[in-house]
# Entry
Amino acid sequence: MKAIPEPSRRRLVLLERLLSTYTEKNITSQKIEELTGWSAAVIRRDISLLELNFGASNGYKVGELKAALDRLLDLSPEQPHACCIVGLGRMGQALLDNRELYESPFKIVAGFDSSVNRTEILRSAFPLHPTTMLEQVIREEGIRYAMLTVEPAEAQSIAVRLANCGIRGIVNYTPCVLTVSPATRVENVSLLTSLENLTAADSTGPER
# Structure
């Protein structure tokens, strides 16, 4: 499969989520445009990157399109991706009880914090460890993705450690801009940045 541009990849990720709750058997590019605001032409172009054998004249079969997106995104529920939380302050503790991943192909298998006291007091469905055990546990558990919620002063050094022990992606909840090897992707999640993006878009006009 050819390389998929970043904007298309992000739209295809959102399309997979949309199809997860879509109840009709077929869906057209015009219907996707109605539900998402993306143009039908952009939608057809993005889906063409999947190199599927079915056409779009009468719409797409939702089951086939969803299966193709799952393959693209490596979202097989039979082989869940192991994840961890690093940093068990307020944000990390909120993620301990997050139910969004319960029926997803992602499974949190470990949590880490620099405070041994926190790892002993907090209750979780998965083991909590001091960050001194970070590399050992990640390798033993085959962890691929990390949610980073540490204090800003720790963020860069922890991110480097995560990348060095094979973490493929970091969801960065800290306000820091992280520098890691290209082999580790970083997805930034920040309320402030999201609001700033909205105001920037508002001031420069609608996205094309």
User: Anything to note?
Assistant: The chain is about 45% helix and 15% strand. The two ends are 26 Å apart (CA to CA). The mean pLDDT is 88.
